[in-house]
Write a structure and sequence with these properties.
Rossmann fold; D-amino Acid Aminotransferase, Chain A, domain 1; Dna Ligase, domain 1; 6-stranded antiparallel beta sheet; 4-stranded mixed beta sheet; 12 helices
């Protein structure tokens, strides 16, 4: 099959997206498919499987904030032109964050009638909006921390936010963008004086803040592929917390798969991951992130509809432990994309 891999884009996760696109295209080629890469922010430029897009080191420092703007006509025309030139049988989006993961791209592909890997537009939009995803999780019994959203009109009012944190659950707390990923813009606040800077980091992304109660626990990632929970991965940074640098720099984090937790804990988290996946209406593949407490309690942090597919990423790690090499994983994801024929007309 001809597969167009979309990577790069305009979000703060642009460089990570290049790395995912490079890996996915190579694996698709190994699976026997004809893959081409395209960055919507570089209109007209199609790249082969062997044209590397990402730099050698993508995790040295978190990217500068990028506030999401509207797609302009050039970007849209370029994307449609690339689709017309390649005439892919299926599109494989690897546009982490921004318009590539919030349902905008998926709606465009639905409109023009091209199958694509991953979840449909509504599921992507719900998952990207962490506040509304949390509401869905709560209704379906997936455990979450206490939290609240800071609306745009209060983003500059740090005193208002400090009062709400103190009243709702106290310190420490976690401040992060309501829409976003790769821990970009995330700050742990340990005292009221930390709040203003944390809000500023989110505002720089053009987003409003989600404030959550801090939960101490082991970081566990659950991949779901083709409606099946894969072996869990425990994430163990060698120093600090699982920030951008530790996430994307080789050697700075240990990954244990399958996670060394009890069979009962593993089963509960996998069940919760499947519940979250189905509750949002996801399809194809996703990654659901959890924290596991010392007493066996756990909370769901978020669901990613287009998780990273770099050489360090967690979904390929879980697949290998399950017995699937990355080309097999790509094949399974493509088959999910082709199960339903998109509506046209």
């Amino acid at each position: 099959m001809k597969v167009l891999v979309l990577c790069g884009g305009e979000s703060a996760e642009r460089v990570v997206s290049w790395a995912s696109g490079d890996a996915v295209a190579l694996w698709l080629g190994e699976a026997g498919h004809e893959a081409t890469k395209y960055d919507p922010e570089a209109p007209g430029v199609l790249r082969s499987v062997h044209e590397r897009m990402a730099p050698d080191a993508i995790g040295v420092a978190a990217p500068l904030p990028v506030a999401h703007g509207e797609y302009d006509a050039t970007t849209l025309r370029g994307l449609l032109d690339a689709l017309d030139r390649v005439r892919p049988d299926v599109v494989f989006p690897m546009l982490h964050g921004g318009r590539g993961e919030d349902g905008t791209l998926q709606a465009i592909l639905d409109w023009v009638g091209i199958p694509y890997a991953g979840s449909k537009a509504l599921a992507c939009g719900l998952a990207m909006d962490k506040h509304h995803a949390r509401l869905v999780f709560k209704v379906h019994g997936v455990p979450i921390t206490d939290g609240f959203v800071v609306p745009f009109e209060h983003m500059a009012d740090s005193e208002y936010v400090r009062r709400r944190i103190s009243h709702n659950f106290g310190y420490p707390a976690v401040v992060k963008p309501q829409n976003g990923g790769s821990t970009v813009g995330l700050t742990k606040v340990y005292q009221p004086d930390d709040v203003a800077g944390a809000l500023a980091a989110v505002s720089a992304l053009g987003d409003q803040a989600l404030i959550e109660a801090h939960f101490t626990g082991r970081e566990i990632a659950a991949a779901v592929v083709a409606d099946e929970a894969y072996p869990l991965v425990e994430i163990k940074p060698k120093s600090g917390h699982y920030d951008y640098a530790n996430k994307y720099t080789s050697g700075r984090t240990d990954y244990v798969c399958p996670a060394e937790i009890s069979p009962a804990e593993s089963a509960r988290i996998q069940t919760a991951a499947l519940t979250a996946f189905r509750a949002l209406g996801c399809s194809g593949f996703s990654r659901v992130d959890f924290l596991l407490g010392a007493n066996g309690d756990f909370v769901c942090l978020e669901l990613n509809t287009l998780p990273g597919m770099t050489q360090n990423s967690l979904v390929p790690k879980a697949a290998r432990v399950k017995g699937e090499q990355p080309p097999e994983l790509m094949q399974k994801i493509l088959e999910c994309a082709l199960v339903s024929v998109p509506r046209t007309g």
